Amino acid sequence: MKSIKNTNIGLILSWLSIFLNIVLFAVKFWVGILYNSVALVADAWHTLTDSISSFAVMIGIKISLKPADEDHPFGHGRAELIATIFVGILLAIVAANFTYESILKLISHQSVDYGKWAIIVTLISIVVKEGMAQYSIRSGKKMESKALIADGWHHRSDAISSIIILIGIYLGKYFWWIDGALGLVVSGLIFYTTYKILKEALSLFLGEKIDENLKESIREIGFKTFTRNLDAHHFLIHRYGHHSELTFHISLPGTMSLSEAHDLATQYENKVKEKYSIGVTIHIDSID
């Protein structure tokens, strides 16, 4: 479970992200309009979506902290996954829109004459966004928060797109098509970030097989705890954010009493719970 301290860090990061991104959006959008640059405007809107995604992350973190209840016996941990998927879908919409805008600009042969404000704002954006990315990703790994890590990669994709635009600013005077081309590159980066975010989140949401190392470790616990081979098998794990439920089968002689079999299974469950802090249910198979 998340500690209150870690949760507060996540919420503070989200509010800070919202504030900084709105400020960056306003400045970048103004510069994009000033120089009639689709790449800068695309980058500005990309930054604004960071605010929306950070708000989604904040809501996801708050909901995920709600305790289990009658309607949700395994807690609300998957709210973070829903927030992560929302961030990914939002990114995909932004990328599709600016792919369209960039193609139109290339077709119409529109060029851009960048000025000093474009350079200053882009440099500020790179520094701020990469700083936010590193802090969010590190905090997300510490908190085991997929949503916070996804938000960090959202920040990083913005920083990378700003670096590309900065390069384009210096090349713009030589190539008329650089702004439209950069718009396509930024869109491609956003699509790639979307793919990475959604692939992992959807995989967890749909359910994944148990890790082989975890499976072998659980078998090893059985070997060290009991004198007989319990033949632990048929492992299934269900993840609910920071809470997981594990089920597996063991094999016991049919001549063993129900009480003895129950005590053995309970001891095995407790050993696994103690080591991994997950819910465990064991099904007993009878063997002759």
From TrEMBL:
- May I have one GO cellular component term? membrane
Q: Which UniProt keywords apply?
A: Membrane, Transmembrane, Transmembrane helix, Transport
- TM ranges: 12-33, 77-97, 117-137, 158-175
Record localization: Membrane
Please tell me whether the keyword Isomerase is annotated for this protein. no
State the InterPro entries in the record.
Answer: Cation_efflux (IPR002524), Cation_efflux_CTD (IPR027470), Cation_efflux_CTD_sf (IPR036837), Cation_efflux_TM (IPR058533), Cation_efflux_TMD_sf (IPR027469), CDF_Transporter (IPR050291)
Where does the Cation efflux protein cytoplasmic domain lie? 213-286
How this chain sits in the membrane, per its record, is: Multi-pass membrane protein
Its Gene Ontology molecular function terms?
A: monoatomic cation transmembrane transporter activity
Occurrences of domain Cation efflux protein transmembrane (ranges): 15-205
Q: Does the keyword Transmembrane helix apply?
A: yes
NCBIfam families named among the record's database cross-references:
CDF (TIGR01297)
Q: Which family does it belong to?
A: Belongs to the cation diffusion facilitator (CDF) transporter (TC 2.A.4) family.
Protein name per its UniProtKB record:
Cation diffusion facilitator family transporter
